[in-house]
Design brief:
By secondary structure, the protein is an alpha/beta fold. It is globular. Helices cover 38% and strands 13% of the residues. The strands form 3 sheets. The chain has an 8-stranded mixed sheet, with helices on both faces. Strands 7-6-10 form a 3-stranded antiparallel sheet, with no helix packed on it. It has a two-stranded antiparallel sheet with strand order 11-13.
Length: 384
């Protein structure tokens, strides 16, 4: 069968949502005559993120990848250091630290939440461990209490890759507030978006001033805008870790409607979860697991099939019905770059198993009940 563009099927995997207010705010940004970073809309977005997450500071970045790279700089990760993370994650989680000369150390994931196995982290710690980087898969928080304790014992920095998890909570605490640093994503596939964008949450107050300098290409330009200096100059290393004001204006409209956007995503997630329960009871698939002490963000809805052949068959059957469903991460530890720049600790059997059996279903604001029912019926038919 020839390849099909999954974004142009009758029910695409993702469809970016706009509230309608984005365009007016973009015009305001243009009329305000500041289109570079850290303008009025950026400041509003940063304040909103601090309020929602409890973070001490929030810096908007061009992507979650950039936020992770800034986190690696702030944590002073360098050659010879090791950073523990799951293999079941996107390449950016590892690349940000490999760029600094560090070695990503891959450990296995839990079979229930598919998050990093906290019990596998402590045995992977060495005297070179400088950071522990969990992701919160599908918006379900990793076991942050255990991970934070391990990081403290190792003298390592806990850096949360919270690309999926804005709005999630762990034991009543907003995700992004446990680690010294946390990275968010506003890519077009995320719940709240500006096309490409991210943010770095900073919970260690001693890092805020340096983060501002690094974000502004290593200059103290932020102090100039606050009237603290009469000119700015190069004072440290850094890069262009700034989100443009045009993108921040778009993002602000999303933040204003965040509650409604999340409500509509949960309606779709909950509808899938209820409708697919009989297939799980029949042993034909497994639905997502959300521990009682966590809330999630309805970022994605996935299924675990019995084996890779069943997963691939389901994807093909859905595509034949013009429904886009896709797999997720190929394990980093078995990738070409993962073998070159990283290493594994222990057996990663759950990672290897899950990556071959997981399929993600379409989930985007605007899906109606008829579309959800069509997806569910197609899954039922394919597995029946």
């Amino acid at each position: 069968m020839p390849p099909v563009n999954r974004f142009h099927l009758a029910i695409p995997f993702n469809r970016p949502f706009a509230t309608g207010a984005e365009f007016g705010y973009i015009r305001e940004a243009i009329d305000g005559l500041q289109l570079s970073g850290n303008g009025r809309f950026a400041r509003q977005c940063s304040a909103w993120l601090q309020e929602q997450t409890g973070a001490g500071a929030a810096l908007l970045t061009p992507s979650c990848t950039a936020a992770l790279e800034l986190a690696a700089l702030l944590a002073e990760i360098g050659p010879g250091d090791e950073v523990i993370m799951p293999s079941f994650t996107f390449s950016s989680t590892a690349t940000a630290f490999a760029l600094r000369g560090a070695t990503p150390v891959f450990v296995d994931i839990r079979p229930d939440t598919l998050n990093i196995d906290e019990e596998a982290v402590a045995p992977a710690v060495t005297d070179r461990t400088r950071a522990i980087v969990p992701i919160h898969y599908a918006g379900v928080p990793a076991e942050l209490d255990s991970l934070a304790a391990t990081a403290r014992a190792a003298g390592a920095v806990l850096i949360e890759d919270a690309a999926h998890a804005l709005g999630s909570t762990y034991r009543g605490r907003p995700v992004g507030g446990d680690g010294e640093l946390a990275a968010l994503s506003f890519h077009e596939t995320k719940n709240l978006t500006c096309g490409e964008g991210g943010a770095l949450l900073i919970n260690n107050p001693t890092l805020v001033e340096r983060a501002e300098i690094m974000q502004e290409k290593g200059t103290d330009r932020a102090r100039l805008f606050r009237g603290e200096v009469d000119k700015y100059t190069w004072v440290d290393i850094g890069s262009s870790f700034l989100l443009s004001e045009i993108s921040a204006a778009f993002l602000w409209a999303q933040f204003e409607s965040a509650d409604e956007i999340l409500r509509r995503r949960f309606e779709i997630w909950d509808a899938y979860h209820a409708a697919l329960a009989p297939l799980e009871e029949a042993g034909l698939l497994r639905r997502p697991v959300v521990p009682a002490h966590c809330t999630h963000s309805a970022h994605l809805y996935y299924l675990l099939l019995p084996d890779e052949a069943a997963r691939d068959s389901l994807i093909e059957c859905l595509r034949a019905e013009s429904i886009a469903a896709i797999f997720h991460y190929l394990p980093l530890h078995s990738s070409r770059a993962g073998k070159l720049y990283g290493r594994s600790h222990g057996a990663l059997s759950v990672t290897d198993d899950v990556s071959g059996r997981l399929v993600r279903l379409p989930l985007w604001v605007g899906m109606g009940s008829a579309e959800i029912e069509r997806v569910v019926q197609a899954v039922e038919t394919a597995l029946g």
